[in-house]
Every structure is written in C-alpha cells, then in structure tokens.
Amino acid sequence: MKYLVSFWVFFTIIGGLFAQAENPFFSTGTVKFNSDVAEVGAYKNATNDALILVAARPWGIIKRVDSQEQYFLNYFEVNAKDQTVGNFQKASNSKFNEGALCFTPNGTRVFFTRNSSKVNKSSKKRELMLFTAIVNKQGKWSKITPSNLNNPAYSIGHPAVSPDGNSLVFASDMPGGQGGTDLYMASIESDGTLGTPINLGPKINTANNELFPWYNQDNQLFFASNGHPGLGGFDLFVTEIREGKEPFTPMNLQAPINSASDDIAIAFHADMQGYFSSNRRNGNDDIYRFTQLRPIVFKVIMSGTVTDVNTNDTLKDAELSIVNAQGSLVATVTTDGKGFYSVNLEPDQKYTVEVKKTEHKEANFQLNTDFNTPKVKQNVQLEGKPNVTYSGRVTDSKTSEILSDVKVSMKDLITGKVVFSGITDSSGNFSKSFENLTYGKVQKFEIKLEKKDYATKTSNFDYEPKISGTININDITDLSIGKVEVGVDLSKIMDLGDIYFDYGKFDIRQDATVQLDKIVSIMNEYPAMVIELGSHTDCRGAKEANKTLSDNRAKASADYIKSRISNPTRISGVGYGEAKLKVNCPCEGKVVSNCPEEEHAKNRRTEFIVKKVK
C-alpha cells in the first residue's frame, strides 16, 4: 500500500506536468528546501512560523532496501525566513519512519504517524501507528502516547483534526472498509484518546486507497486518492461533511495542483495557502507550495431543457430566474438554441425557479437542493398562453328580438367561482376576456341569463382554447330566452332538458331533481303561475300500463314541486302514457320497434306547460 508501508516506496513517473486548468482553484510553485531524496509533507508548527518537514534526509538509522541505502522518513524543521532545513527535536523521531501529523486548533496537542516497533507476523511489515503528544508553549513534545485505536494487525495514521478540535480523520486499512486504505472519523476526548472510528463511506472511500486527509478553516476535507477518477496516480480531492449528511461527492482539484503523477499530502498552513507533495519531476517526491485562488463552494448543478408542452419544440431564449428562500435573486439563465440551460446552485437550499418565454404561459417550481445530489435534471414544459374573449348576444327565443339589460353571469364550473357578472348592452351583447389560458385545457362554464318577464335560463358550454381571439358563445350554446306566458313549455324556454325516468319506473332520479328545482325557483318567482305537468312514456308495454305509469310519474314530479312552493294547487300532474310520442317509435300489437334505447328515453319525458302567469 503506497504511503502506508513500513518504509517509503518511490513511484514510477507516468506522465508529464498537466497544463494549467481553465479558471483553476489553485496556483502552485516550487520551494527552496527540496533535495534529491523524498520530501512527503510540510506542516505548520503550532508554536512558531517554522515548518515541520517529513523527509528521507540523513538522520538516525539507515535501512537497506534492495541493496541500496535509504534513510527513514523523519521530522525536520524548515526556517520560515531563509527556508533552510535543520533537525527537529529528538523526542519526535523514532528508529523508524515518521509520517503525516497535525496539531489541535489550540496547539497544545499533536497527533502524528510512525511505524510500529514490532513487525506484523502476518504482513511481515511494521504497521503504521497513530501517536499523540502534549505540546508546551515552546513547542516541545512530551508524554508521547500511542493511540488507543492502534492495532498490530493493521495500519492507522495520517491524522487530520477538524477546525473545531472535536474530531479526527485518519487513514487505515483496518478490516471492514471499502478496500485498500480508507478514511475514518473518530471523536477526540479531553485526554487525547479517540472514540469509536466511523468509516466515511463509499462517497469518499473507494476499493483503492484514500490517504493524507486535511481540513481547511472552512471545514472542507482534502485528501489524496488513487481510486476516484483523476489525472493520474494519486490525485488530491476535496469534500464536505455536514452534520447529519453524507459527505458531498469529492471534487478533483484539477491542474495545476494535480498532475499525471502522484500528488499527495496537502496541508494548509495559512488561510488559502499551504504545501503539498508530488513526484511529478523525475519521479522524486518534492514539496510544492500552493495558493488557493478562489473559494471552493460545492454546488448542485441544475440543468435541463425547456420545451413547448403542446408541440414538444425546444424553446430558445426562455429565461429562468432563481430566487432563494430569502427572496433574493441568485441567478438568471437563458436557454440556448437547443432550449438547454445549466446553472450552479448552493446545496441544502430552497429555491423558487420562475420560467418565462414570450407567447407562453409563465411557469415556476420549487427546488430543494440536496447536499448528496450534486446533479439535478429539471426539464421544464411551458404552455402556450392564448388570450380568449368570449362574446355573446342574447335574443328573444320566439321573436329573435335583440334583448338589452339582460343580467348575465358566468361561473367557472372547474373552480366554482363566478368569473363574470354584467348586463347586455343596447345591441344585446356582452363579453368576458381571459388572459394566459392554458393551451388546450378545456374551460367549462355555466352561463345564466335573467330578465324581467322572461324565464331565467341556465346552460353550460365548454371551450378548449388553442389560439388567441374572440369566441362567439352563440356558436356553442343557445343564448335566447323566452317570455313567461301562457302556453309555453318551461322546459324549452329554460333549456331544462327532459326529466327522464328509468324504464318501467316512476322514482325521481337524482339528476332530475336539479331540473325540478329550477321549476320550483320560477314558480316561487311568479307566485300566481299555474303549471300543468305532463308525463309521457315510450311505446313499450301495454297502453293502460303506460298510462298508469305516466300518472304515477306526473304525481311524483308534481309532489316534489308542491312540497317546495307556496299554494301547492298551482301545479297539477297529467299522465299521457304513450299517446304523445316525441319520437315516432310505435310498438303496439304486432309492430316491433327498432328504435335505439336513447330514442325511447326521449319519449319518457316530463313537460311543464304554463296555464296562467298572473
């Protein structure tokens, strides 16, 4: 395992330097204190301006590898002013390799990595172990103690303390991980012991190796990985871990901080500045400095296509305005020639997205960005928005005379709201305009016409708007009204429709009560009105039986009305049986009717003939 073995293994360079990325997050540069041996980490000392360098420079015991002498990795001190390298305190270095380290935010404790003094009998190597020490004001380490999480069966090291000092992230190949070395998190107790480690999960850890974690002051976690897609070898990545959330999908830091070689051990020593190690030149690990040029803000990328819901055509120049929960406009984006858009948004936020396009109805939707869902596909369909004006002319049903001063009301049957109330002008006309209608969505209206001495008439009409313009209601429904006078059939001038009965029955159906209630209303409006209610059957069945059936129907209908008007004697019921067929469907004796059921139903009807008005 690279960087978690008992001694340093150099890597074969696999490519040259990558070109500078467009709008990079970092700039990089060389340092003076590199040498011809491995430098694999540079960390800001907590008590002075010096750097603590992890390097394979001459110090301590030499170990032979493949007949070549190579020094163990040890801690050295780099002077902040002239960048000269000197020895670090002896207490910090052991007989074997030292590795990545970090200080707590208050600088009073250090966590660091070194080899175990014993060889793992199974792996035949000295596993990495985690140690901690107390640091005094002069920077001296004391009470060096192995971590309570160390285990001779596997490696644990590369510590990184969170900015609040409450938790530690480290690398380990302990059993139960995703594969290779994984990153874990554990709480830090007051005495420096660590709580139960928690694997950071498959968003961060892969089947290969994740190493060298480090936090910046924005609580973003940086690390090296050769398992996530990168530019080559180990690359540096960054993620965020928010309380109660899974880590955000790691972001590759790209060139120039990453290369086709191995890039590891990033560590911030000041705000937006720090060091990392890379073997991009001659295969030798060196220290490079970096400056972060702009904040890394994890974004949710919302993208999609805006189309016309009616034609499925893509819509160019549709405008999307994104407003946050505080009501502030955070972004405006316009679709391209293919109707496509893309915009970066903050995670874990609530947005309202408003979509506009000329000659189309505006649309909006709510979006809750999820920290764990970095890409959101949000296609939008906009409806055509026809502007429709409904106009009509009211006339006398008998004379066709134009009627002014007719009270007109229109009720939207879908919403139940009255959308228009007015009177006809001197030409008998009225109109109602609607803007931004939904393309192809049927409008359903009830239109009510009222005028003195005329029977109130209620009828329904539907329209499916697809183009802007004026719609003549007279082409859809009859807007004529009739005078209340002797001899008229109220069911005709009020457009009641027939009062139907089921075959062979005289029970009043539920749909018939709506029509009968209209007769109740006009009889209460005209308290002297007298009506003869005539009930008719179809031809089927015996004549006498039909006569009896129609009498029963007439009585049932009249009784319904009598119970709801003053002076019930004003309405009487007469049963005509099949004597007055509305549709010629005879079937008496040997005659067999071939009329369909709907024509028989028309013969089963009730009429309301006015016998007296005043």
Produce a short descriptive summary.
The chain is mostly beta strands.
Q: Rounded to an integer, what's the Rg over CA atoms?
A: 44 Å
Terminal Cα span: 108 Å
Q: What's the rounded overall pLDDT mean? A: 88
Strand order of the largest sheet: 1-22-21-20
Major beta sheet summary:
4 strands, antiparallel
Can you count the helices? Answer: 4
Task: Give the helix level as a range of percent.
Answer: under 10%
Let me know the number of strands: 42
Q: And the CATH topology of the largest domain?
A: Neuraminidase
Number of domains: 4
Shape: elongated
CATH superfamily of the largest domain: TolB, C-terminal domain
Percent strand equals 35-45%
What does this structure look like?
With 614 residues, the chain is mainly beta. It folds into four domains: 26-292, 6 Propeller (Neuraminidase), CATH 2.120.10.30; 300-382, Immunoglobulin-like (Sandwich), CATH 2.60.40.10; 388-481, Immunoglobulins (Immunoglobulin-like, Sandwich); 490-612, 60s Ribosomal Protein L30, Chain: A, CATH 3.30.1330.60. The protein has a four-stranded antiparallel sheet with strand order 1-22-21-20, with no helix packed on it. Helix 2 crosses helix 3. The longest helix has 20 residues, at 543-562. It is elongated and about 125 Å long.
